[in-house]
Amino acid sequence: MEAAWGGAAWPTSQGADRHRRSLYTFTKRTAPFAMFNTFDAPTGESCLARRDTSNTPLQALTLLNDVFFIEVAQAMGRDLARAHGTVGERLRLAFQRCLSRPPSADELATLETFWRNQLARFRSRDLDAAAVAGPGDGPLEERAAWAALARALLNLDEMITKG
Length: 163
Known about the structure:
The protein is mainly alpha-helical. The chain contains eight helices and no strands. The longest helix is centred in the C-terminal third of the chain and has 19 residues, at 105-123.
């Protein structure tokens, strides 16, 4: 009864369950998970051959501000910062992980310019590197630049609606 009338909370998981895929979250028919509704998730009451898709400002706000997406970008930034290889190789890796395809030469050049600009902004203290990078080891500004790049990739239309 409490869940049906808005009193149920969605507590944040702790420990190993915190970063599990959202596919494995609990579903409450009477109090749907807000992020799922934002991205047109089916209710589960019937089988759907094809999901509806929309593009709304609420989706953009969720992608930029939801703790889930911020932590995913920070984790990806940590992984990319400690990965071996050139900047270009790591950019290709990030792009492949997010979009399941290699970047074109133009996309790669754009990503590298973005990454270098963000790194310069973090090194000059224009932006708060600690807030963007989150917890972790390694050079703070580099982790922050990779996290910023990950956030940009995670916000691409191709990543959200076409994957």
